[in-house]
């Protein structure tokens, strides 16, 4: 059975990004339909951001208590892994998306459950359990299908039933032995989460951890992972992977073997654009979609095809994708009424990723970074001054943990006397990050920032110490 329906906007993908673009366009009165083939709420809600942080949090709370005299003596047990997994399941609603679907309905947004495929200009065909739904969009089609893990081309890997981030965040029990390949955010976070839940973890990386961050960030995280009993091996190259009744066997390039019960492959992701009909509108199947700052896809005739989130080739972070989606939804709604102006920093343009992308790595210690690293600033030709400060010397940090270990770095553009990058590493530094983001986005002159007085005794006093160290 086939049905036809005409609406203003079709959003393909009901993850956090798709929900945001649909909401922003729909709240103006446009008729918006969202298409989803899996769970409403997407990767972040069920297999990424929320469950991974839930797996990490209990271990972080226990470690924080163990760093305080008086509290440490009261903590005599270990994590209850079953309870941690139960708490994780609460954040995913047991992988039931009914509450998310109800939210779509409450926001006046339509939902079609099925697999979507572009069939031409402003047309989308959806295969559902009841038949085919042919959707025509009067204004726009938005592709928000996210990304999927990339498995390296290693003999035996594809046939060894390895874990990707999905299996690692939704596992029902703790593997006795876990091998992890990949030193990025996913690899580091999940290695630590499962180690603290009782797994014997081996982390395999080609070089250092957290490439793209300040070098000291990866070094401090590696030291902490080793302190948790994780075998961190650098210079590791996969040669072959196999699985038998005794587990997974990972052969490395040097001939050594790592045996494990599960093997997590965290080596990157690619846009989930294969098989969605891009070729019907003149684009390459499976490729990333080049977009402008309003989300419009390049290479498509007419202003109707948009892309947001991981498929757009921009920053693959949930909060950044949601920000992009808000700008795109607003732009779609405004263009429905006529031409619009799109200067930088307008509500219709997503320009933050050109200057100040914030990111937190939720390991213990946390890594919170925004803007440019010192190396990136120099590569851009900036005359920079790098200011480092030991977070353990801040009174507020000494209250957070006995023997607090952490570091802060501020990267200053000496020509403009503004901050272009900040990195914090330490316990509970994530909440320091937004102040840094505001300072960079707002291009606040250092002499003006000097008058933003931090409360005492809080960790935010690191701002005073950084500015003093700079020379103010």
Secondary structure layout:
Blueprint: E1 2-12, H1 16-26, E2 32-36, H2 42-46, H3 49-66, H4 71-74, H5 81-91, H6 98-106, E3 110-113, E4 115-120, E5 123-128, E6 131-143, E7 147-149, H7 165-170, E8 177-181, H8 185-196, E9 200-204, H9 215-227, E10 231-233, E11 238-244, E12 247-252, E13 257-260, E14 262-265, E15 269-271, E16 305-307, H10 318-335, E17 358-361, E18 366-371, H11 374-379, E19 384-390, H12 395-400, E20 407-413, E21 418-426, H13 433-441, H14 446-449, H15 462-470
Parallel strand pairs: 1-2, 1-6, 2-3, 6-16, 8-9, 8-14, 9-10
Antiparallel strand pairs: 4-5, 5-6, 7-15, 11-12, 12-13, 17-18, 18-21, 19-20, 20-21
Helix pairs in contact: 1-10, 3-5, 3-8
Describe this structure in words.
This protein has 472 residues and is of the alpha/beta class. Helix 1 runs parallel beside helix 10 (318-335), helix 3 (49-66) crosses helix 5 (81-91) and helix 3 crosses helix 8 (185-196). The protein folds into 3 domains: 2-41 and 97-148 and 270-352, FAD/NAD(P)-binding domain; 151-267, FAD/NAD(P)-binding domain, CATH 3.50.50; 365-470, FAD/NAD-linked reductase, C-terminal dimerisation domain (Enolase-like, domain 1, 2-Layer Sandwich). The protein is globular and about 65 Å long. Strand 12 (247-252) and strand 13 (257-260) form a beta hairpin. Strands 1, 2, 3, 4, 5, 6 and 16 form a 7-stranded mixed β-sheet that branches. The chain has a 5-stranded antiparallel β-sheet with strand order 17-18-21-20-19, with helices on both faces. The longest helix is centred in the first third of the chain and has 18 residues, at 49-66. The protein has helices spanning 16-26, 42-46, 49-66, 71-74, 81-91, 98-106, 165-170, 185-196, 215-227, 318-335, 374-379, 395-400, 433-441, 446-449, 462-470; strands spanning 2-12, 32-36, 110-113, 115-120, 123-128, 131-143, 147-149, 177-181, 200-204, 231-233, 238-244, 247-252, 257-260, 262-265, 269-271, 305-307, 358-361, 366-371, 384-390, 407-413, 418-426.
